[in-house]
Amino acid sequence: MYIVEMQKVTKIFGELVANDHVDFQLRKGEIHALLGENGAGKTTLMRILYGLYQQTTGDIFIDGEKVTINSPKDAIKKGVGMVTQHFALVPPMTVAENVVLGYTDSFVLDQAAIEKKVGEAANQFSLDINPKSIVRHLSVGQRQRVEILKALYRNAKVLILDEPTAVLVPQEVDSLFETLDRLRKDGLSVIFISHKLDEVTKITDRVTVLRDGKSIGTVDTVNVTQKQLAAMMVGRDTFGVTRQTEINPDNKKILEVEDLCALDDKGLPALKNLKLSIRSGEILGIAGVGGNGQKELAEILSGVKAPISGVIKINDKNLVGKDPSEFSKMGIGRIPEDRHEGVVGDLTVYENLALEHLDEYSKNGFLDKQAIRKNANELIKNFQIKAKPTDRIRTLSGGNMQKVLLARVLSRQPEVVIAPQPTRGLDVGATEYVRQQLLEQRTRGAAVMLISEDLDEILSISDRIAVIYEGEIVGTINAQNATPEKLGLMMSGALREKA
Amino acid sequence: MEVFLVNLITATFRVSTPILLAAIGETYSERAGILNLGIEGIMYFGAFIGFFVADKSGSLWTGLFVAIMSGVIAGLLMGLLTVTLGVNQHVSGLGITLLLTGLSLFGFRLVYGGRSTPPSIPSFQAVNPFGDIPILGTITQQYLLTYITFLVIVPLAWFILFKTRFGLNIRAVGENPEAVDAAGVNVYLVRYGVLAIGGGLMAAGGAFLSLAQLGAFTHGIIAGRGWVAIAIVIFGNWSPVKVMGGALIFGGTFALQLRLQAMGLQLPIPYETFLALPYVVTIIALVLAGRNASYPAALLKPYRRE
Questions:
Q1: CB-CB neighbours of A196 under 10 Å
Q2: CA distance B306 to chain A (A)
Q3: pTM of the prediction?
Q4: Which residues contact B271 (CB under 8 A, 6 or more apart)?
Q5: What ipTM describes this predicted complex?
Q6: Contact B180 A82 (CB under 8 A)
Q7: d(CA B170, CA B190)
Q8: What is the pLDDT of residues A88-106, one digit of tens each?
C-alpha cells in the first residue's frame, strides 16, 4: 500500500493543462524524485497535494483512504508538509514563532514554553537550529532547516521539497542530503522536486518523470542512468551540444583587451591587468569560481561599468570611455547575466523585444507599433519562443525569457557576443538551445565570450579556455588540452599556464 | 504657572483620546498589511452616528455602541474592497473616506436641517476618582472613555499583538501572507478581523468627539485627526505603546496651542499659526522617526494564491 497515491489527477488553468491524468505513488520511507523540465507540472501536482490548488479531476488517497484536500490546513492534518521554493517564513520573527505559526492551541503565547518545545523538536530530529534566532539573521540553508522543522513539528509523515537545492551552496546541499537520509531511516517519506539529474540519482530511491503535464513513468533510481532520465525528461535523446569543427587559424582578432583594471562595487580591486583576445568564429570560455571578477568583466565589456585603466578594442577601435549604446553600435552584444534585470516584467514580449532599440522603431517621436509587432513575430518564430507577442514577460518560464533576451541581442548579428552564465537555472532543453545558439554565432563568424561556472559547458563548446582567478587570467589553454582536473587546479590558483 | 501646567496635562489626555483610539485601530490593520485610509471617514461617520443615535434614543452609551458597530461595518466594507476584491488600498481607503464623510454631512443635514447653531446633547461627564486632591485630583478628572482608552485599549492591543496566537497571525500576515497561508491559517479572515476591530476603534474615536468632548456634531469635527493618526502609527513604529506616546505628543501640542490662543497674547503672528502647530509637530516627529520606520513588509499588497 502506498502512503500517498494520486490517480489521474488533472489540473487546468484557463486554456493550459498543467497536469494531464497524472498517476503518482509514494511508498512509505522512500525519497521519491519528481523530475521534469521547468513547466512540466511538477510543482502544480504537489501544490494540489498540499491543498494550495484543487485538482480539476482525479483522486488523492492517503494511507489508502480517499481524501479531499481543500487547503494546506487539510494537508497538514493528513500528515503532508511542504517546503516551497520561496520559503514561507516571516523574517522578523523568531524560529520558534515561525514554527508554531498556525499550529498552537493556546490563545495566549508563552514565548519561553514554545521556545522550549521547538528546541526539543529540533533535537529530536537532529536539526541544528536555535529556536530563539530571528529568521532574518539566518542563512538560506538554516532557513530551509526551519521549514523542514516546521513540517516535522506538525507531525508530517510526507515531506514535499520543491527544488530544495536551487538556493543552496554545495556544503549546504550535502548537509541537506544527510538530513534527508536520516529522516528516511526514521520512516519519513519525501517527495523531491528537481530538474537536476545528478542530485536525483544521488539521493532518491525512485523517480517519476513528468513532461508537458503528463507522467512519463516511474523507475527505480538504481536501474537508470542520467542519460536515460534526461531522455525521459525531454522526450528525445540528448546528445549534448558540442563544438564540431576547428577554428581557422587565419581568422583575425576581433576583440582585444589589454591591461584592464577595475574595482568592484565595494571599491576593491576586481580585475588586475586582465588581458585576452577573441578571434572571429571563436568561442572563448572564461572559467572560474564565482566572484573572481567575472561579473565586472562582463559589465565592463558591455559598457555598463567603466574600468580604471586598460584598453578594449574592437577591430582596432578603442571603446574605453564610451557608453553602453555606443558599445552596442560598435558591435558588442551582451546577454544580461540576470535575466530578470534584462527585461521589464510588466511589459509584453513584443515591447521587450524592441526595448533596446526604440529609436529604430520610432517615427517622428511616436512608436511605430506595426514595425515593433512585425519584428516580434519574426523573432518569436526564428528563436522558437513559446509565447504570444502580447504576453507579459514575467509570465514566461526562465527558458523562454532567456530566448527573448537571446533574440533581442543575437538578431542584430553583433560581432562580439558576451554571454555571462547564459544557462544558469535553465532546464536541460533550454540549456541545449542556448548552447546551440552560441555555436551558431560562432559559425556566423562572431567572437563569443562564454563566462560560466559550469565546467562541462565550458569544455563542450569553447575553442579556448581562459581561467580567471582573483581578477587575473591565470592561463589560457586550447580546449583539446583541457581537462576538468587541470581547470580545477587553475581555478583554485594552484596552477598557472601560459598559452 | 502650576495651574497652567496642570490644566495642560489634563487637557492633553482628553485631546489625545480620539486620536489614540483611531491610531490603535489603524495599528491593528496595518500590522496585518492593510493601510486603512478610510480612517478619516470612519471617524466622521462614528461621530455622526453616535450623535444621532444618542440624540434620538436619549442614551449616550447606545449612541457609542451603534457608532462602534457602524465602524465595524465600514471596516468590513474596506475588507470587501481590498481583501476579497483586491482593489488598491489607497483608492479604496480614500473612497471610503469620501463616501462616509459625505454620508455623515448629508445625513446630518437631512435629520437636523440647516441651522445656524448646531444642535447639542448633554455629553458624557468626566469622572472624578480622587475628588479635591490638588493636582492629582484635577489631572485624573477625565472621561471614562479616556480611562478605558489608556488603561484598557492600549495594553490590550499590546497584549493581543505580541502575546497571543491571534496577534502572531496578524503580524505574520502583515509580513508574509504566503507563510501564513502555507501554515494553514486563513489570511482573509485575519485581515477582515483586524479591519473590523480597527473600524470599531476609529468610529469610537469619532464618537468620543461628538459624545464627550463637544456634545455636538459639526462640519469640521474630525479636522484631519484621522490623517494625524496614520502619521502617529508610523511614528510609533506599529507598536501600541509607542503609538500612545505619539498621540500624547500631538495631544499635548494641541492643548498647548488652544491655551496659547486663549491667553490672548498680543503677538505679531496670526492665531492660525498656533492652530497649525500640532500638525507641524506631527510632521517633524514623523520626519525624525520615519527614517527608521520598519514598515510591515506586506503592507499595501493584496494576497492572492498564485
A1: 17
A2: 9
A3: 0.77
A4: B261
A5: 0.87
A6: no
A7: 6
A8: 999 999 999 999 998 887 8
